Each structure stands twice: as structure tokens, then as C-alpha cells.
What we know:
The complex is a heterodimer of chains A (294) and B (338). Chain A has a single domain (2-293), classed as ABC transporter involved in vitamin B12 uptake, BtuC. Chain A contains eleven helices and two strands. Chain A has helices spanning 2-32, 39-57, 68-90, 98-119, 144-166, 168-178, 180-185, 190-212, 222-237, 242-259, 265-282; strands at 134-137, 140-143. A two-stranded antiparallel ribbon of chain A has the order 1-2. In chain A, a hairpin with a 2-residue loop joins strand 1 and strand 2. Chain B has 338 residues and is mainly alpha-helical. Chain B has a domain at 31-245. Chain B starts with a helix and ends in a 10-residue tail after the last helix. The chains are: A mainly alpha (294), B mainly alpha (338). Chain A binds chain B through residues 29, 33-35, 83, 86-87, 90-91, 95-99, 101-103, 105-110, 112-114, 116-117, 121, 220, 228, 231-232, 235, 239, 264, 266-267, 269-270, 273-274, 276-277, 280-281, 284, 293-294, and chain B through 57, 104-105, 108-112, 114-116, 118-120, 122-123, 126-127, 129-130, 250, 253-254, 257, 261, 289-292, 294-295, 297-299, 301-302, 305-306, 309.
Amino acid sequence: MTAVIQATLNGIMMGSMYGLTALGLTLIFGVMKVINFAHGSLLMVGMFSAYWLIKLTGIHPYLALLIVPPVLYVFGYYLQDVVIKPVFKAERQTREPATVIIVTTGVWYVLDNLSLMLFGAEYRTVRTAISNKSMALGPYILSIPKFSGFVIAVLATIGLALFMRKTKIGMALRATALDREAANLMGIDQYKVYNIAFGLGTAIAGIAGCVLIPFYYVYPSVGVVFDIRAFIIVVLGGLGSIPGALLGGLVIGLIESVFSQFMASTWTEAIIYAIFLIILFVKPSGFFGNKQDW
Amino acid sequence: MSRKQLDTSLLGLAALIAFGLPLVVTSPTYLQILILLFFYAYLTTSWNLVGGFAGVLPLGHSVFVGIGAYTSTILTLQYGVSPWIGMLVGGLLAALVGVIIGLPTFRLRGAYFCLCTIAFAEGIRVMVENIDSLGPLKINGPRGLLIPLKEPSFWHYQFMSKLPYYYIILTLLILVLALTWFISRSKIGYYLAAGGEEPEAATALGVNVANCKLLAMALSCFFTALAGTFYAQLMLYFYPKGLMGLDLSFEIAFIALIGGRGTIAGPVIGALVLRPLNEFTRIYLSDMLPGLHLVIFGLILILVMLYKPQGLTAPLAAAYDKLARKITRAPNAKGAAA
């Protein structure tokens, strides 16, 4: 029983990391109606940025949270503005343009392989002030970096939800998500909103990068691990739903961690896919999905 | 010369070149590159039946390649059935699986369908990698299956040289291209086009969009699986990660979108552009700097989508149309190349 509870705790903490990755993806999908296949690569960029920042300056990993996400926001904003927006404009008529999906896949290839060219294929870790710290909770052990990662993921989710509800930009994002033509007529610049949404999604990938670096390794294709899970999570939680992303992440993390107590961990992957397909067939809107999106 | 004569003679010329090419290209290496080029053109044309005409974006077609390869190989290895029969069994099985996936997913929006195909393909791949034997069937997990050499014969689907493989895949390609041409001109083709662009409007007009999409899916999966058997017999070895991975599924979609999704010539043109690019950049650049060739690949993908979002076929067809008009002086002839 102790082992199962410990696995549950670990699952929740790792799941919050998946949820944080999915949060950016679901924001981008919710507003733009496009699956961002480059999302894992953006996470990789966030992780490498945090890695080099910490490695070269030796600052505390959570101080990097003040630097990396703003930088990634700018990166994402201009990536969407320069690369993705023109394709969107060319395919204005289509609700979910396939060409945009393919362009994000191209971005994925370029980013992953650029970092392979620059940094090589090896797995890198950086020792930080908190890397191996843990605390005891009765008979259970909580790793400090993972636990603070969990807290930050929850805070980021709440923060994003509040931002979407309370600020003017957030409302513009939601309006565009609901009906982009109507939002356009209300004077919202659709493409600027897309830039902001993509920038925010990338910034969240930057947060995830900073939080992961103290206990996870980084390599050029690290995004793929999180990518596939993030896709599953956003559908599980409901494409475009902010609380759904976190909840979906926790569910996937729990399944992965608890099931691997009873079977080979390679099988848990198959089980996640199976659960995903069942959800899609039975309740495609996920936990909190928007009915008009499916 | 009339426009129709011009089109037919050019098409005949292309076929003649395709059939005569092995007379010029005798090096097995280059012949292999050509075979793989046609293999990808064939796969993408099969994909195009559903991905192009039905207006959805399947990104898990490698699973059907896998179904084809595993079905025929297991039947051959364990029951001594000819791969040709196994190929048909695999095709039918893939069509059935395709319909089973399509039934619940075609009513969903594009993004959901897309993610669903990825999850299904990856799920099956992970399962195959985890299973050593399924009842009496030996699957061999992640190690894949090895087809032992047999006496070369048509019945065994094994040959001394690469040449027969070349003609088999060329025949398959022409077959599926003809089917695409036939469908694009049939009622089903129009229904599919209507259902892909405006499903609600098409349904309101009495088109059974779902059934048309299912038919397209079944055909697409059937032909995709045939390529799986072909690949298995060509290489005589395959393993789940290489054969059923996402890389192959994505490459098929790339070829289709760069060539021109939903056009007849698109997959062939896409394969003609991307495959040599892929092969040669990999051969010449990957030693210099690992990853460089994929950066170039990604950049080309982005650039084509930026400047020609409809793919390369549309501008090529327009250029051909202009040229043909000059030759035939028939101003209202309609382009047949697209």
C-alpha cells in the first residue's frame, strides 16, 4: 500500500508537468483551432534556455522563471508572426487549415535538429541548489523540485485562467476562440490575438522548462516525450480547456505511475492510448470541452 | 494536335519513361532509390484517397503499412501461405480496421480525427512492441520479423534482382492512380469533395457524407496495407519502430501536402520532389553535421507551405495549361494534368 501511495504522489507530481506542457498547447488550440505540433520543441527550447542560463550563470533555477518565460514569449510571438501567420492568411477560408499543422511540423523539425546541430545528442543535466533535496511526509518521500514544480503548475493554471477572465487581452483571446469572424467585427485584430496566444503558449513551455530542469534531463528530441502525452491530455481535458489541461495531466501522470506498479512500464503507454481512444469514442469533448469544437 | 491528343501522348510518354527507366538505371543502389520513390508515391496516393479527397488529415497511416506487413509475413512464416494471398488478407484486415476507426471519428472535427489517428497508430505500435506472441502467432516484439530467403519465384514474392520489385510497385502505383482518377470523376468523388469542405451543407443536400468517407477510408487502408507486404518482401526484415512509427505517417502527409493534397498528380509530384531531396541530403549532409538535412527538410516544408499552400501541383498544372494552349491553340481546354 505504501508503494501505491508513493506512486500516486509521484504520479501527481509528474502529471502536473505534463499538464503544464498541455496548458500551452490547449491555449494555442483553443484560440487558433490548430494543433501545434511544434509544442514539444518549444518545451525543448525552454528547457535548453533554462539549462544554459543556470549552467552559465549559476543562478537559482526558480530565478530563471523570471527570465526564460518572457524571452520565450517574445520568441513564440515572432515565430507565429513570421512563420505561421502568412499561412493562416493564405487559408483564411478554412476553419482548421491542414497547411498550418504541417508548418508547425516543419518548425518542429527545424528546432529539434538545430539544437541537435548546436548541442549534440547527449542527455544533459545540471546540478542546481535544489536538485537532490527531498522532504519526508510520514513514510513517504517528496522530492523538493518535483513538489515545487507541482505548485508552480497549479499556480500557472490558476494564473492563466484568471488572465483569460479578468484582463482585456484575455477576453479578446476568448472572443476570438469562440468566433473569430464576430471578434474581428468587434475590432479585435485576429492575427495579433494569435501572436499573443502563441507567445503565451510558448512562455508556458518556458515555465515548464525552468521547472523541469532541476530534476529532468534535456536533449534535442526531449519534446517528443511530452508532445504525445500533451496531445492526449488536451483531448482528455477538452481541447481548449485550461483546467482540463491540468486535470488531464494529473490523470495521465497517475495512470502512468500507478499502473507501472503492477505491470511493465512499456504497457502503461499502451493503456494510456487505449484510455484516450475510449474517451474519444464515448465523450469526445473530454472533461470540460467545448461542444462546438468537436 | 488537339488538347486531348497532347494529354494522352504525354501521359503515354511518362508511362514509357517509367517502364523503360531500368534499362538506363542499372545500378542496384539507384534502382532501390527509384523503388522507394514509387513506394512513397504509392503510399501517398493511397493516403490521398481519404486524406486528400475526404478532407481529413490522417496522421497514423503507418499502422496500416504495419498491418499489411505483419499479416502477410506471419501467414508466410507460420502457415506457408504465399505473400500474395497474405497481401490481400492484410489489405482486407486493414480496410476493416480503417472502418472501425472511421465510424466513431469521422463525426468529429478535424483536430480530433487527426489526434485520434496518431493515438491509434502509436497505441498499436506500442502493443506490437510489447507482445512476443499472440496465441499461436509469433510477433517477436520490438525485434521485428525476419523473412528467410527462399527460392526466388513470383509465388514466393522473392526475386534475384531488384527489377521485379520495380515493376510490381510501378504497377501498383498505376493501379491506385487509375482508381483515384476514376473516383475523382465519379459521384462519390463529388460527394467526398462536398463533404470535406462543407459537411453540414452536403448533409443538408442529402449526401451521406459519413458513408462516403468510410468507403474512402476502407479503400485507402486496403491499398496502404498492400504496400506493407511489398516493403516486407523487398527488405525481408522489418521492425515496429521503423515500419509503424510516426515518422512514416508524417512523411506521407508531407509528400501529399507539398505535392498537392486532393489532386491526382500531387502525391507523385510530392514524392518526386521530396524523396530524392531526402535521400541525397541525408547521404551528403548527415556526415557533415547531424541534423542538418532535417533542418533543410523542415525549412523546405515551411517555405512551400508559405508560398504555395495548395502544393506544387496547382502552379505546375497552370504552367502546363498555358504551354498546352500555345501548342494546341484551343483556349478553353481544361487542364487534365491536375
